[in-house]
Amino acid sequence: PLAATQTPDGKKWFQGTADAVRQFTWLFEDATKKHIEHVLILSGDHLYRMDYMKFIQKHIDTRADITISCVPMDDSRASDYGLMKIDDRGRVLYFSEKPKGADLRAMEVDTTVLGLSPQEAKIKPYIASMGIYVFRTDILLKLLRWRYPTANDFGSEIIPASTKEYNVQAYLFNDYWEDIGTIKSFFDANLALAAQPPKFRFFDPTKPIFTSPRFLPPTKIEKCRVLDSIISHGCFSPGMQCRAFCCWSPFATRIWCGVE
């Protein structure tokens, strides 16, 4: 991963998803990377587990210029995401960022095209962008440098315009995925991890997830009764009783009794 930076040539922080990539386009133009034909662009505030090779292979097989990973979505949350209209071969015809009302209804599609059963398709008639993309390298550079040099965001600016000119394909990811880019969504996703059974499992030995070490001491628990909870390292819990509880510890944390 590349961190947001300021340089003598560019003193502004990232202005959006597209601008973040634009500020590092020099990496793609390095002579040692000229052979790279496709670029995978990921978001850092999502919780999911995906085999990216399948995603990239779909992009190659369909000869796509851009491929967007998407999830089927129901009515309750569809207006929170960028939605796509597709044809019977999965090509994206139209992209609308967070539509509401009649505009939302107009984005309903037959999601059986992407592999959902008729029952699932009835419940989830929308296709929402995950904000994860595969671009042909030459197309990405053309869009960022010359076609839309002032566009800052992929979802609201570059992708909607690109559907008219390029072969933009949808790739269905019909598994657990959550956008945890807000404090509330981050908190709710962590509480969901404590459910039985959880919708997402961190403890799959065949698909481990690695995190950044904090170098804190192990959590110490004394005379506690803990149910359906997640407690990070660096905590001290004297005589605690808790249920459906999550604690994250940037520093040492003391957890008192009666937490729920």
UniProtKB/TrEMBL annotation:
<keyword id="KW-0548">Nucleotidyltransferase</keyword>
<feature type="domain" description="Nucleotidyl transferase">
    <location>
        <begin position="8"/>
        <end position="194"/>
    </location>
</feature>
<dbReference type="GO" id="GO:0019252">
    <property type="term" value="P:starch biosynthetic process"/>
</dbReference>
<comment type="pathway">
    <text>Glycan biosynthesis; starch biosynthesis.</text>
</comment>
<keyword id="KW-0067">ATP-binding</keyword>
<dbReference type="Pfam" id="PF00483">
    <property type="entry name" value="NTP_transferase"/>
</dbReference>
<keyword id="KW-0750">Starch biosynthesis</keyword>
<dbReference type="InterPro" id="IPR011831">
    <property type="entry name" value="ADP-Glc_PPase"/>
</dbReference>
<dbReference type="GO" id="GO:0005524">
    <property type="term" value="F:ATP binding"/>
</dbReference>
<keyword id="KW-0021">Allosteric enzyme</keyword>
<protein>
    <recommendedName>
        <fullName>glucose-1-phosphate adenylyltransferase</fullName>
        <ecNumber>2.7.7.27</ecNumber>
    </recommendedName>
</protein>
<dbReference type="GO" id="GO:0005978">
    <property type="term" value="P:glycogen biosynthetic process"/>
</dbReference>
<dbReference type="InterPro" id="IPR005835">
    <property type="entry name" value="NTP_transferase_dom"/>
</dbReference>
<dbReference type="InterPro" id="IPR005836">
    <property type="entry name" value="ADP_Glu_pyroP_CS"/>
</dbReference>
<dbReference type="InterPro" id="IPR029044">
    <property type="entry name" value="Nucleotide-diphossugar_trans"/>
</dbReference>
<dbReference type="GO" id="GO:0008878">
    <property type="term" value="F:glucose-1-phosphate adenylyltransferase activity"/>
</dbReference>
<keyword id="KW-0547">Nucleotide-binding</keyword>
<comment type="similarity">
    <text>Belongs to the bacterial/plant glucose-1-phosphate adenylyltransferase family.</text>
</comment>
<keyword id="KW-0808">Transferase</keyword>
